[in-house]
Amino acid sequence: MRAVWLALLLALAAPLQAAVGATDWLARIGPALRGLDYQGTLVYVAGGRMETVRVFHRRDGDRERERLVTLAGPRREVIRDGSKVMCLGGDGPLAFDVGMPGRWSPALALSDAGDLPGYRVHLAGSDRVAGHAAQRIDIVAADAWRYGYRLWLERDTGLPLRVDLVDAAGEAVEQVAFTELSLDQRPSDADLAPSSAEGLVPLAPQVAGRTVTPDWHVPVPPPGFALRSARRDDAGLQLLYSDGLASVSVYVERADPRLRGASSTRRGAVHAHGFRVDGWHVLAIGKVPAATVAQLARTVRAVDADG
Question: What CA–CA distance (Å, rounded) separates 159 from 156?
């Protein structure tokens, strides 16, 4: 009888142990990305498009430095030195989002995924990526309103080696992965310096305008999504809805009242849905499934229209 009870307790404890283990692994991502010295080659794949990028990262006390350089097509660079981020060449930043912090890895935002109601996290076995032993973590979306993730973290350090964004069928819609990585080779000053000072300009902020109390909103957004910010500029209003991991921007602007119609587009994992009606243009765009942007765009309303 004692053996039966012991087996039952172990069976009940196993899911909890796995969840705690996965959460602990996710907590290692930030310190690894910010604190380690490393250099390697990344490949980004989405929507039939591939980009190869050389990455250099070094930590000097409180000073963090990083440089990303494309290896094919028009030469582009993103250089980060502390809080200063600069872009050189091409038509803007790299194909995948590096944002104002200048970081290459979409995994940084996943550190707290275990605490978000829209996701479940669990350990998914061991693997090898770019010659390094890796722990795989699955972040499973609770429903079809958001994508899930598969992560491969270097076993000794927790550094992300590969990140897959996956749809409801488990198919990768976007991949970022190291094909080669050196954790024992500290980048030199030359590795981290821009190749040219000519054309070096700060990356523009992703969101411009002033914070406002919105006069438009989505009364019932998809489960887990909530309004995080509202900003207005000369063009119109931007509403940012997020579940803590995925986010969608909803733009509301004045338009020619004679124009009507709707359109949907996709680029890799990013979907957009817009329409023009009654003198307004509404556009929702985000790295979420098509149904999510369509729902947010179709249901946005003027605040005083709810009564």
Answer: 8
Give yes or no: residues 115 and 133 share one domain.
yes
pTM score = 0.83
- Kindly state the tokens that stand for 243: 């579940």
Q: Which of 158, 173, 202 is the last residue of a domain?
A: 202
Q: Is the pLDDT of residue 104 over 90?
A: no
In whole angstroms, give the CA distance from residue 202 to residue 144.
Answer: 37
Q: Say whether both 221 and 168 belong to one domain.
A: no
Among residues 202, 219, 252, the one where a domain terminates is 202
pLDDT, tens only, 26-65: 999 999 999 999 999 999 998 888 999 999 999 999 999 9
Q: How many domains does the chain have?
A: 2
Residue linked to tokens 């290692």: 28
Q: Label residue 252 by pLDDT band (50, 70, 90).
A: very high
